[in-house]
Amino acid sequence: LREKGFDIPEKADFTSVRKLKRGGALFEVDSPDTKLWLNTPSNGKAFAQEFGDTTIKDRTFQVIAEYVPISFNHESSSDLREIEERSNLSPGTMVKAKWIKPVARHNPGWRTVFCVIA
């Protein structure tokens, strides 16, 4: 891709590739810079085209956050960005959040609940 004029990070490298059961491939990159470069739509598309009919999917992991104040708006991207900033996480690390128990089943006296964050 460098030959085609793409501005690839200086030390961009893939540390491993694993073939998946359904024919896909899982690429592991060496740094957050390489991941950010691939996540840019034009860069990711150019990379995927080198492999034919390919798409890039970002892999997320879910964690459970306990005792989250009910004032937290899990549907607000600005609230997610604020948590990232306060937690010293890179912007965009948190993709989505949802309550474990639906709001309709929350007890009116509750001040905190559990939340799944991806």
Could you give a short description of this structure?
This protein has 118 residues and is an alpha+beta fold. 23% of the residues lie in helices and 23% in strands. The chain is built from three helices and five strands; from the N terminus they run E-E-H-H-E-H-E-E.
Keywords:
alpha+beta, two-stranded antiparallel sheet, elongated, 3-stranded antiparallel beta sheet, 118 residues
Shape, please?
elongated
- Indicate the mean pLDDT: 84
- Helical element count? 3
Rounded radius of gyration (Å): 19 Å
Element-by-element helix/strand order:
EEHHEHEE
Structural classification: alpha+beta
Q: Percentage of helical residues?
A: 10-25%
Would you give an account of this structure?
- There is one protein chain.
- The chain is of the alpha+beta class and 118 residues long.
- The chain is built from three helices and five strands.
- Strand 1 (14-19) and strand 2 (25-29) form a beta hairpin.
